[in-house]
Amino acid sequence: MNPTPRFDTTWEAALGQADTAAATLGRDVVLVRDLLGRASLLVDDRDEPLDPDAPELVKLREEFPDVTHPFTGAEPVQTASSLFAPEMFFDSAEVIVRREREPGGAGQVAVLERTVVGADWSRDTEPDDVTSADRRERRIALYGFKGGVGRSTATAILARHLASRGHCVLVVDLDLESPGVSSLLEDPAGLPAHGIVDHLVEAAVGNEASLDLVTRSSVLPGIEGNGEVWLAPASGKPREGEPYDYLAKLNRIYSDLPATEPGGRPRPFCARLEDTITACEDLVAERSRRPDVVLLDSRAGIHDIAAITLTQLSGLALLFAVNNPSTWEGYRMMFRQWAQRPDRASELRGRLRIVAAMFHSAGDAKRLGALRDQAYETFSALLYDDVEPDAVDDLLDPDAPPVFHPAPLDSDAPHAPIPILFGNDLVGLDPYRGRDWLEMPFIEAAYARFLTALDRLVPKPRTGAS
Questions:
Q1: What is the sign, positive or negative, of the torsion defined by CA atoms of 242, 246, 247, 252?
Q2: In a designed cystine with 91, which of 87, 175, 382, 425 is the match (CB 3.0 to 4.6 A)?
Q3: Each residue of 201-249: pLDDT tens digit?
């Protein structure tokens, strides 16, 4: 008895149909998967409309529903000439090319995912202009696939450390469902009236002017000279007597915005979040100076916030990891998504660094090596080039692009773990009980190698900083 068709098997069958259609029709095709997982195949005949009764097209309309049931779209096979706005599909920024067009032969095969969460894992990563490129290079994302790995604590400690080196640092709390870094950097009374969610909600209706989004940290010890730490919290602190419904705002921020004028382009959530962070940076610049470093404390897991933060907003992404199967399977899921587009993988991989989070070093000198080996295996399988450079040096075309496959023991490679040592004193830390916790000896011991590594990776303070 044949097994029941499921989500994954029907999608593989749909991909096979797309390959066949591109070859037999000689046209570009886009395979679209909607919010329920249903597949439809679109054939690009804008230059030369196809005969609806062409034998190849008729056969495709008969076979495609058979192999994709029950995940078959309402209109399983359509041509561009029959669509009201074909450019919304064929020219979409979210289209992922699976196979390039063959001159005089098969057409291009691409896929387009219509999703609520996850679209931003496959968007383009290049910034739109020189200004945003410069902004991105000064942003550092701190991310962990699993929560509870000390990411927010590391963000606060790194912010203080960089400020002590003369940097103007802005910390942006993007863990909107579970904010945490704000309490490490400021007392509740010192928080600004508005937060990240406020800007996203107000900007959606053009009402974002004059929002109070940032505050300078007043509780961090040990910062002298020209260094500063600023905070953009997830949630604001409303003034006495004013209403504030954080959950109602959070439920309304993730959608893309329609075009504001006929023929205009929609405003995707990734662009909206970029606008929000830029607004925070501009406010710091108005009140003091342009931030030298922006630390983005990202939420954990597979979520559009994480996708945008890692792929589009940051010039350096610190991936927090503990050496267990669930962590590496999570990163493999991410890397597989990026690997669908080789151009994306080659652009992203050099911006990543693994952080060995809450690392237990006592009693086993081999633990860090084991984590490094697992990281190397994961990067090699999905993001590094297939062949190691020393195996192909004599075979490469001198005009070919260089092979990116760092050696296993390369200490500057993306897979080389930067350790943060585990300390029992960090478990259940209550920053409100004593703001001098950052100066305790166990902090220096636990974070020394992490902070030294980041000193080498962070851009130098701008002119005018000490």
A1: positive
A2: 87
A3: 999 888 999 999 999 998 887 787 889 999 999 999 988 888 889 998 8
| Of 83-92, 310-319, 327-336, the least confident | 83-92
Report which of 363, 354, 331, 451 is spatially closest to residue 410, judged by C-alpha positions.
354
Cα(327)–Cα(362) distance, integer angstroms: 22
Cα distance between residue 235 and residue 182, in whole Å: 9
Q: If pLDDT is split at 50, 70 and 90, which confidence band does 399 have? A: low
408, 418, 466 from 452: Cα distances, Å: 21, 10, 19
| Token output for 66 | 């058979």
Q: Which residues contact 304 (CB under 8 A, 6 or more apart)?
A: 117, 118, 119, 120, 254, 269, 270
CB count within 10 Å of CB 332 equals 16
CA-wise closest residue to 378 among 321, 318, 420, 418: 321
When the pLDDT of each residue in the chain is averaged and rounded to a whole number, the result is 85
Provide the b/e sequence for 393-424 (b: ≥16 CB within 10 Å): eeeeeeeeeebebbeeeeeebbbbbbbbbbbe
